[in-house]
Amino acid sequence: MSSIPKIVILGAGYGGILTAQRLQKALNYNEADVTLVNRHEYHYFTTHLHMPAAGTDSIEHTRVSISKLIDEFKIDLVKSSVQEIRTQQKKIILEDGTLSYDYLVIALGGEPETFGIPGLDKYALTIRSINSVRLIREHIEYQFAKYKNENNAQEHINFVVGGAGFSGIEFVAELADRIPGLCKEFDVDPSMVNIYNIEAAPTALPGFAPELVEYAMNLLTKKGVTFKMGVAIKECLPNGVILASGEEIKASTIVWTGGIRGNRLIEAAGFEAMRGRVKVDEYLRAPGQDNIFIIGDGSLMINPEGRPYPPTAQIAMQQGECCAHNLVAAIRNQQPKKFAFSNKGTVASLGKGQGIAVVGSKTYKGWTAAQLKKVVDMRYLFIIGGIPLVLKKGRFL
């Protein structure tokens, strides 16, 4: 039996791929066996999915083959879906086999949080994967095609987006940009199309200064978005939604962006979790499990103000780097390092050539913020794939 420790990484999202890449650089030959498990052969950029979902960009711009990001002589890539995590046995049950581990990294990403709203899981679409994005784009186009073939039924060109956080705002911005082209293609009067953005909280885009939120909402209102703030979706129906106020909005397209929870496999494995998120220690380890690290959407960390860090790509990437360092430290019997989040800034896109951003104490809006968004995107591409990936996937105009 081999004495080489086995490291298994579940998920090749932002946290998982950075963990794998840092491990392959830091580990010596035969120092550990590293296996990366992912259900797809590609890594996709979650922060870009709103664009192909609305149809304003190609799906191919949002993904890259994992084999181009890792050295398969150092990292064993297993394409499979995780069915169960058995911590007592140190085993991972896959759909087509079993893996054993000495060290485990859970980076499975999140799932839509429906907050128990009736009908939401059945009738609403979500922006969570390449396949879900493909479905949303085709569904939207299909509704425009049906509108003219079903006596101009209004519900086909009414669009409801639940949630006005990052995903919701960025998606309605892209959708608003796409509508004129769809109207021209399908001979639909643009004035007949309605985009509703519904948010239970009193304001959109939490974390941004009020003046930036106001700028974003004014811009999107001019693009045709109708905001309904401070009112929750009470029920989701096959042909619309009922709001807590009693108002009913008829719509054939409901896209839910109102919340993310951790992967349910984490709860099923017996970890103590809140909405699928485990409160990890300062070294990113699960409570009482020095050999199990949880990063990304499945982890819960408290910031200095006493509130949970939001599950963003930025924090997942930094966790991935720290996690890899601590895995190497564990194997070499060295001291691990504490995770410390370094906020590089926050940028939200508002459609073509528009955005809002906060970098340090400075705020930006409009074209400047849109360029910062491109810089952020290209920085990530450079981190995981160097200049070749930047040239292939980057957006320069």
3D structure, described in words:
The protein is an alpha/beta fold and 397 residues long. It folds into two domains: 6-112 and 260-343, FAD/NAD(P)-binding domain, CATH 3.50.50; 120-256, 3-Layer(bba) Sandwich (FAD/NAD(P)-binding domain). Helices cover 32% and strands 26% of the residues. The protein has helices at 14-26, 50-54, 120-123, 130-149, 166-186, 210-222, 264-268, 313-331, 367-393; strands spanning 6-10, 33-38, 42-44, 63-65, 75-79, 82-86, 91-94, 97-100, 103-106, 110-112, 125-126, 158-162, 194-199, 225-229, 233-237, 240-243, 248-250, 253-256, 260-262, 278-279, 285-286, 289-294, 299-300, 346-349, 355-359, 362-365. The strands form eight sheets. The chain has a six-stranded mixed beta sheet with strand order 5-2-1-9-22-21, covered by helices on one side. It has a five-stranded parallel beta sheet with strand order 11-18-12-13-14. A three-stranded antiparallel beta sheet has the order 6-7-8. Strand 24 (346-349) and strand 25 form a beta hairpin. Helix 1 packs parallel to helix 8 (313-331). The chain is globular and about 70 Å long. 42% of the residues are buried. Its cofactor is FAD. Residues 6-320 form the FAD/NAD(P)-binding domain. InterPro entries: FAD/NAD-bd_sf, FAD/NAD-binding_dom, NADH-Q_oxidoreductase.
